[in-house]
UniProtKB/TrEMBL annotation:
Transmembrane portions of the chain: none
Membrane topology value: Peripheral membrane protein
Organism: Python bivittatus
Alphabetical keyword list: Chaperone, Disulfide bond, Membrane, Mitochondrion, Mitochondrion inner membrane, Protein transport, Translocation, Transport
SUPFAM superfamilies referenced in this protein's UniProt entry, alphabetically: Tim10-like (SSF144122)
Cellular component terms (Gene Ontology): mitochondrial inner membrane
GO biological process: protein transport
Domain notes: The twin CX3C motif contains 4 conserved Cys residues that form 2 disulfide bonds in the mitochondrial intermembrane space.
Places the protein is found: Mitochondrion inner membrane
Protein name per Swiss-Prot or TrEMBL: Mitochondrial import inner membrane translocase subunit
Gene for this chain: TIMM8B
Record-annotated Tim10-like domain positions: 2-44
Amino acid sequence: MEVCWEKCVDKPGSRLNSRTETCLANCVNRFIDTTLSVTSRFAQLMQKGGH
């Protein structure tokens, strides 16, 4: 999340503009997708190892 913040937020203020909001949303979504992909792959490896 820190990387997203540094990448997307130029100058902190009381409100986020639409570009900043979109950037943060995309960044967070990529993080979630990556986490789900890694978790799924780990589950597959655990199933193979369990047989």
